[in-house]
Each structure stands twice: as C-alpha cells, then as structure tokens.
Amino acid sequence: MKNWYEMNQQEVLDVMHSRRDGLDEQEVVNIRAEKGLNKLEETKQKTPLAIFLSQFADLLVIILIIAASVSLFTGDVESTLVIVAVLILNAILGTVQTVNAQKSLAALKSLSSPHVKVIRDGQRLEIDSIDVVPGDIVMLDAGDMICADGRILESFSLQVNESSLTGESTNVEKKDEVLHGEVALADRTNMVFSGSLVTYGRAIVVVTETGMQTEIGKIAKMMNDTKEHKTPLQKSLDDFSSKLATGIMIISVIVFGLEMWRGMHIMDALLFAVALAVAAIPEALSSIVTIVQAMGTKKMAKENAIIKDLAAVESLGSVSVICSDKTGTLTQNKMTVQDIYIGGELLKEEQLKLTNQLHRYLLMDAILANDSTIVDGQGIGDPTEYALIEMFYHVKGISINNGESILTDHMLRDVLPRVQELSFDSDRKLMSTKHIVHGIPTIFTKGAIDVLLDRCTKIRDNNGIREITQEDKDAIMKQNDAFSKNGLRVLTFAYKESDEDLTLEAENNYIFIGLISMIDPPRVESIQAVQDAKEAGIRTVMITGDHKVTATAIAKKIGIFSEGDEAVTGMELDAMSDEELARRVEHISVYARVSPENKIRIVDAWQKKGHIVSMTGDGVNDAPALKKADIGVAMGITGTEVSKDAASMILSDDNFATIIKAVANGRVVYKNIKNAVLYLLSGNLSAILVVLYTSIVGLPIPFLAVQLLFINLVTDSLPALAIGMEPGDHDVLKQKPRDPHAGIMDHVFVRRMVLQGMLIGLVVVVAFHLGLLTSPAMACSMAFLTLTMSRLLHGFNCRDQKSIFALGFKRNMFSLYAFLIGLVLVLLIIFTPVGRSMFRVATMNNTQILSIFLLALIPTAIIQLKKITTNKTSL
Questions:
Q1: Catalytic annotation on 176?
Q2: What mean pLDDT do residues 544-552 have?
Q3: 325, 409, 472, 546: which is the annotated catalytic residue?
C-alpha cells in the first residue's frame, strides 16, 4: 500500500472506508472495537510498597538481616535495633528515588486535546479526543491541538507547529497536494500529526492513525521498550557487592565451623560469625554514595544543570560522546542577519545608512513587506521577519547613542501604510505589499531568489536604476551560492513603481535591490565548550531536524565538523545496515532531518562501541533517545514536558556549555566517590583482618557488633562525607574520560585498599594484645577505640592523591570538622559512663588511652610520609 502522503484525497477516503460527510455511528462502534480508544498505553508500574520491599532483595542486605536476627535471638537488642534502623533508612531512600522517577507517558498523554470537532453522518459534533477513530473527518482551526494523525483533505492557509515531533520551531505550512517518493516526517506537508499545534488557518482532515499507531504513539512505544541503563559506578558497585557478599558468607561459615571445632559454644560461635559479617559489610556505603551524588547535584543546579537522577552525576564523568541538538543548544535559537549583498558589495547591517537611497529602499522593503514586530524586546511573528526588524534598528541614523530609536518600524508603517497585500505563499515563495511612497504607488516584494530574480528586469545600485544583465544575475547567484554553502538562509528583495492592482499577475517586472542572509548563530560559549570537550576526550555530534547544508555549516563554525568528517540525513541513515553504521559512526559528525528512530539508532551505535553517551533534546521526538542514552539532557526553557520527564538532566539555560561544566563536576563527583569508597573499604578490611586473626589464633572476639556498627555508621560516615565534598582540580577537563568498563576496583585501587587496611589492622592487633594484658574486655575496648581513631585519621589520607600538606586544610574544611566531631564522640565514649555502657567499653588508665592515640596515628603518618617522599600513591 502507498504511504498516506502519496495518495490523493479520494484514495485515502476509500482505504479508510470513509467519506466527506463522515462515518455513521455504527461504523464508529465497529472501528473502535477493532482499533481501540485514541489514547497512549502505559506500562504497569510498581506500587510504592512493592518498590520498598524490593530494596531488601540484595545479598548484602539479607546477610545484615540474618545478623540482626541472630543478635536478637542472643539478646543483643541494641545491635538488632541499629542494624534494622540502617536497613529501613536505606530502603526509604531507594523507594523515594524510584517513586520520583520518570513519568514520560503521563506527560505524553497530556498532549492530547480534550475535545475535537468532527463530522459524523453529515453532522458537526464536538467529542472527546479519546473517542476519535480512524476514518473520522476532523475540522481544525487555529489554536487546536491535533489529537490524531491525519491526511489533509482541504487546507485553508493551514500552518502547524510540529516542534515537539521534529525539533524545528518554524511553523510548517500545510497543503492538500499529493507528495511523491520517500519523504521525511518533517517534509510531509499534506499530513498532520498528533501532539502538534495549529498556529494559523484551518483545515479538514481524515484521521489515518490513532493511539499507539500515531507518530507520537510510536515514540511512546519506543519509550516503553527502552530500558534504562545502570551507570558505570552502579555496575561496578553491584559487581563488588555480589563478590563481597559471597566472600563474607564463605568466610563467616568457615570461621563459624572453626570455632565450633575448637569447642566454642554454638551461640558464641554464631555471634563471632555475625561480628565478622558486620565488620565486612560497609553499611554506610550506599548512603554515602547517595549523599555525595546529592551534593554534586546541588552544585550543578547552581550552574544551571538540574540533575533528576542522582546516579547520573557520576555517569557524567565517563561521558565520551555528546549527541547534541542544534537549535537553541548549540545555537541561539534566534534568526540574525549576517551579510547583506547590495550595490554589488557585501555589507554588515551596521554599515547600512538611512541617507543612502539604495539602502533606504532595502530597509523599506524589509519592514513594510513584513508581518512581524518587536514588543518589549520580544519578537512577535515569524523569526525570519523579526530578524529583519532587528536589523533595521542597527542601521546608522535609526538609533542614537543611548540606544533610543528616533525611527521605529511602527512609525515607518504608519507613514507608509499598506494599500494592498499578497501574503506569503509556499507555492509562490513571495510576499508583496503596496504603499504610496513620495506620492508614487510602490510594490515591495521579498521572497526566494529562484522565484524573484527571474521576475526582475532592472537593478538598482548606487548609481541609480538600470537594466539587469546576465552578468548581474550570475553575480547575484554566485553570492547566493556562497551564502548557502555557509548554511545561511537568503531572502531576495525587489520593488517596482506601479499603480496597477496588486494581483498575482502584478508580481513581475521588478527592480532588484539586494540579498539579505540570515542564520541562527552559534552561541559564543558553545564554540569554547566544544573545544573544551575535545580536550577532555569527548566527541560532540550534532543531531538536528534542520537541513544538511545548514547543519554542516553551523557544525564547522562551532568546531564539530572537521576535515574528513561525514554528514548524513535521516533517509541516508535508514538506508544503512547496522554493520555499515557501526563502521561509519565514528566518522559522522552531523545527522540532519532525523526521525526519533534515527536518534535511538545513533545512540545505540555509539553505546555498542563501548561509549558512555549523552543525548540532548527538547521535543517529544527526542524523548526515546533521551531515555536510551546513558545521560539524557533536556532543555529547561524550550523543552517539552515529555523531554524533561525522559531526561536525567535538565539545562535551565538551554546552553551546551553547561553540559561541559556538568561533565567536569561529574568527574569530580566520581573521583570523590571513589576516594570515599576507598576510605570505607580499607577501613572495613582492617576490621576483617583483625577478626580473622583472632579467630585463627584462637583469641576472644575483638569487637562487638554494636561497636562495629558505630564505626561503620558514625565515625566512618563523617570523614567519607567530607571526602565527597573535596573540590576538583583545575585540570579535570584535560584528563581523558575514564573507561566505564574498568570498574572502580582496578588493580591500583585494590593495592592501596589492601596496604592501607593491613596497616590499620596491624596497629589494632597491637592494641588488642596490649589490652589482653589486663582482660579480654579491655582488649576489646582498646581494639575498638584504636580502630575508630585510626579510621578517623585515615580520612585525611583518602582526600586526594596528594599529601595533606600539599592539599591544606582550608581547601576542604569539612574534613577537619569531620575529624573533630569524631574525636569528640570517641572522648565521650572513653570518659563518660553512658558512653562506656552503651558501647561496652572498659574503664582505662591514662597509659592505655595514650597508647590508643599513638597507635592510631601510625598508619596515617606512614601513608603521608610515603606520599611526601615519592609524590606517588602506592599507599
């Protein structure tokens, strides 16, 4: 079957079994039974309770639940309460994040208009949009939101804003003519699409698709089918957690069996195994990572990057490809006059002079044959037309030094009012208005060069009016070609003095005045941002609904398109196999006239190459790709609610440069998370080593479960949070993106973690033996307090790869505050009866207390000395 746009009106009606006077009621019932309601389907979502319960489906959590149960069974109520409180807190955090996740389909549904005007059985009715069926005859007027896809039967100057689907903000003029061949969605001018807005005129349309079969429905389906990706850190931590949980279970079982074999009572052996499990599990890890990410989002929000998904913060640090929209993100989303070809020379708008008669006629043409205006600095009307008005105000003699205009476009139009007009028409590609200038009837016309230049018989230059020659036309066309190659939009201006009525036949025998070129210029900061991205090892790719020539020209100006790069259209991309795209994707810098399916395919091709991909967009058409990308970035100003809901990050200033700032922040956040994880794991490893040592040697339990939870949740959390607030280095963007597949546990990380854990574990064992000289209770107390103090001090080691003397305390005062708070808590435990009772600590003499603090200082002294002497991070 032909595409709808390739059929004439009668063919469409025949295929739809419809007619001009509409369907009858029985036909509507039958069609609805087959096609369903005109609405978008939603995926079934979990209830908050189900989400909350799913947070406990983790092996580490299950081990902690078992530990809490054992503690309760043996009468250790305090340990049980602490463990349960931690588990519930983490589950609540996870539930809140999930419940607040994306609700893209709800926003998509809101795009449907509540009511629609239809013709059924010859009668004009107003019905709910949900009741529209394929074959319905729909009447559209200005201001209507289109609720279904349809083929235009009759168009009366219909203009539609399809930016939510195509990404281009310019209104599309619709017609009822048949189109031929393969035509991109943005160029199907005889079709209307659900979710679009009628901005001008009216039309009669036959509905061809409803619900999930519409173009917006296809996008909804893609969003349903698109699965969200775990971030590199999530994958790494998940992998680590599963391995850690397995290791903990194996070691705990071995230790339990070993103690039973040695004759220990079963409950004591079980408590020992529980203590080991609690020591090994970094209970605060999940909360610390979440909080550090949250602090990163707060900082980014101040820089116009609003992070919706906390996990996206650290993913930004590994982004290696940014697929960016053009309009409004890389460009200013505002048409601006560039060069003016007049009198055989190229001029800038500020070089035009009101005193020059040739220039004056060009300005009159630009303002009088123009339906737009500027009110309070805001352009009203077509962006191309109000760019001409802005040009007018930049001309010498129009404005005085303080910027105040002595002549406005309103004044000019009042002095030279329209007598007659012919509005712009996409078939004629012309707009003409008639005025009385100096008592002479004058017709001003602007339009496309391929139409207007052929209608010019004369040309005006600085010497007056003369016959136009072929050489003149060749020179004009040559200049037009030069403009076009640079991606500039060109308007041609001409006029004639005539007292004839302004009809279609009158649009001939013109005097050529000049050409004005325009472009949506690149943002100044986007050029530097693209360069910064290159230095950071990030590839920027432009994906736009604009034409290839325009997109490529802008890409060259910004620095995205280099020698040897390729630019392809959506239709060319459709013709490529997945294998061909995989071969060429790294060489393609510009994609033009793309569809939503194209965008997902581009993102997928880069991801299959092993890249972490960020995708920007503002329309409904961008939503599936935003969801597919590792980091979806929506525009806060021009973006639709659908795109914002589908994205992980929203730019409140719609600026590409903000993405690069966010990437820099993401890299800092990841580094801080990695340092915080190193701090937590090396500390936990020290506790594990001490427990294993005492188990193998046959010594008493070195720690109680409540003591280990105090270390993991209180004294560990404060330094870890402080590490998460460490400022980034100035050269963070000069580093290459980290390998997302390498994981957080690389060999350097593991070596540092093991060496640091062994150092801390060694001094704790020494403290334990010193305590044993007095009693097992004293040994447990000294081991607990030495481990606590040494881990508090260890927070300074994990701030950065540099020594604390190179970093200084003023760079991150939070690290000093964290240590001081932890120190106060330790002193309260040592010197107050309540503290000693709560954490089962024995009363110590001054020598024992001094031994604890001196032993705790040794690991940090060694690590810092090594950093100072070698300037390396082997420790």
A1: no
A2: 86
A3: 325
